[in-house]
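Cast an eye over my tokenised protein here and flag anything odd:

===
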Amino acid sequence: MKAREDAALDDLARFVQVIGRDKSLQERFCRLAALSPVQRSNEVHVMAEQMNAENKDQELVSVFRLFADTRVFEAVMVALRDCCYIRT
């Protein structure tokens, strides 16, 4: 179980780095941050389905779905702010 948790954290850390290098993803995350937790969760699932339709990497889509959880989303937003990728 510990290895799976570590892998998930590594995936999230990589995702934060990807977001940090992509202005459009940064803007998307700022828009998501403005939504209520329920709206954000719904939007994350819609976006994940779009990623599936675009044949994006399934691991990436799975990690992205984690953002539907408020705690995960907020932790990623803190990481993005701490790394100075976004200012909200």
Summary: The chain has a mean pLDDT of 85. The two ends are 34 Å apart (CA to CA).
